């Protein structure tokens, strides 16, 4: 339950230039924050290539390649137009599991269509010189479209089953869409790599239910990560005013939004019937007041052995990095790092074992956490 842990806070004055910054001592280890790259506009998603370079999306609709030394490329060509307004734009990006052979990748965006905007999943191939996207193909539109530019969601992950998992937001104006099973908003979708509903999905063949749906009742999902210890999928979402959640993804589960939850409307008005009820899945962890969790990653590297198996969440309103200790599929504690310093959209682990943080700002940067002794 929220408040069950007493978080320790470790803070630094911020990132330095290209050298190492001040030492930050957390409960488990010490690290430095280094400014790795800059010149990005609201970076949103990141994917590391096998050679250590990084593809980074910018919400206004650009895709960049960042070198191992932190140099940012010109925008890659071949990226389709996006609906870059409000929370919409170019969002998450994920390499295919066999990228080294196929150079295939997946990305999602806000797209304008007849009737309004929606969340779109596409597939493409990265060119041999990594300067463009080729063979771009729309795989899925989270219909129906609507007006407005909020709550697109859209994180992508590949499960141990090889299937593609994708989150969609409730689109904000009509939160009841998250409970409507003929509607792809406010859901977690499970797909084959060509965008078809995945074999074994829980609602295949059920009348009036979209077969892509794996789980429902989701508000504004901003993080999605596979627990390396158990193989389970963890979904992270923002509540309204309070009620941010981490959910353990289960086939056919309903996570309750907007029927149950722990937050209130931004006006202070009541939203939910109750905090919990039978037939709806309780979160693993929730926060009130809000911390606005965004990107998520489980740490599996060698640079910080004491952090191995921990879940890291980038946060927006609380402007920091949250470290959660995990045993199996339970959250056992939390630590707030770099709190109150910088809106963070995503946290990603590099092949070097360092953690990379994408800052959510018009003059966006990539920060790197390195062991204090390196």
Automatic annotation (TrEMBL):
Ranges for domain Glucose/Sorbosone dehydrogenase: 40-368
Species for this entry: Teichococcus aestuarii
Source superkingdom: Bacteria
Coiled coil: none
Stored InterPro entries: 6-blade_b-propeller_TolB-like, Glc/Sorbosone_DH, Quinoprot_gluc/sorb_DH_b-prop
Protein name as catalogued: Glucose/Sorbosone dehydrogenase domain-containing protein
């Amino acid at each position: 339950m929220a408040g069950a842990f007493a978080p320790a806070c470790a803070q630094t004055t911020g990132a330095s230039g290209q050298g190492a910054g001040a030492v930050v001592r957390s409960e488990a280890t010490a690290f430095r924050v280094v400014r790795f790259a800059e010149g990005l506009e609201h970076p949103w998603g990141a994917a590391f290539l096998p050679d250590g370079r990084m593809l980074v999306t910018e919400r206004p609709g650009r895709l960049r390649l960042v070198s191992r030394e932190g140099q940012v490329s010109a925008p890659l060509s071949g990226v389709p137009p996006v609906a870059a307004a409000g929370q919409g734009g170019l969002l998450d990006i994920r390499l295919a599991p066999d990228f080294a052979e196929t150079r295939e990748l997946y990305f999602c965006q806000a797209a304008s269509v007849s009737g309004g905007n929606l969340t779109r999943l596409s597939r493409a191939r990265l060119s041999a010189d990594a300067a463009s996207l080729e063979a771009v193909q729309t795989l899925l539109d989270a219909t129906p479209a609507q007006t407005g530019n909020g709550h697109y969601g859209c994180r992508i992950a590949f499960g141990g089953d090889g299937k593609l998992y994708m989150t969609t937001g409730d689109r904000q104006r009509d939160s009841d869409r998250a409970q409507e099973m003929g509607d792809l908003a406010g859901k977690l979708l499970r797909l084959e790599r060509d965008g078809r509903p995945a074999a074994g999905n829980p609602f295949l063949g059920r009348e009036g239910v979209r077969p892509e749906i794996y789980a429902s009742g989701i508000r504004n999902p901003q993080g999605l990560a596979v627990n390396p210890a158990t193989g389970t999928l963890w979904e992270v979402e923002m509540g309204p005013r309070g009620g941010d959640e981490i959910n353990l993804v289960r086939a056919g589960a309903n996570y309750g939004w907007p029927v149950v939850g722990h937050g209130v409307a931004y006006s202070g008005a009541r939203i939910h019937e109750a905090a919990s009820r039978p037939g709806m899945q309780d979160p693993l962890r929730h926060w009130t007041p809000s911390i606005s969790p965004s990107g998520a990653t489980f740490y599996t590297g060698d640079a910080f052995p004491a952090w191995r198996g921990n879940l890291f969440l980038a946060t927006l309103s609380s402007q920091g990095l949250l470290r959660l200790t995990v045993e199996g599929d339970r959250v056992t504690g939390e630590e707030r790092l770099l709190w109150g310093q910088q809106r963070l959209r995503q946290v990603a682990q590099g092949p070097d074992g360092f953690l990379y943080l994408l800052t959510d700002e018009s003059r966006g940067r990539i920060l790197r956490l390195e062991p204090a002794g390196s």
